[in-house]
Amino acid sequence: MPTLQVTVVSGKDLAVRDRDTSDPYVKLRVGYAQQWHKTRVQKNNLNPVFNENFKLHVDNPDEQNLDIEVWDSDLISRGIFW
Ligand SMILES: [Ca+2]
After folding, report:
1. Number of structural domains, the chain?
2. What residue numbers bound the domain in which 58 lies?
C-alpha cells in the first residue's frame, strides 16, 4: 500500500482563539479515513514549532486528498476550528 510521509514543521502568526493566545495542534488524514493523526498541543504559542513526522497510508493516490486542519486545544471543549 502506498505511504505518504508528511512533516508538520511550524506555524506562524496563528489566530488568537483564547484571551490573547492559542494552544494549536494540527490534524491530518488522507481521504475520508476515520482516523486523524494529530501533533502534540503547543500551549500558549502563536508561532508553534512541531517538527513531527507522519506516515499516512494511501489506498488510492489518484482520488484521495490530504486533509490538514489546525485547531486550538481547550480543556473543556474539543477545540475551535481554525
Ligand atoms: Ca485554547
Report:
1. 1
2. 3-81
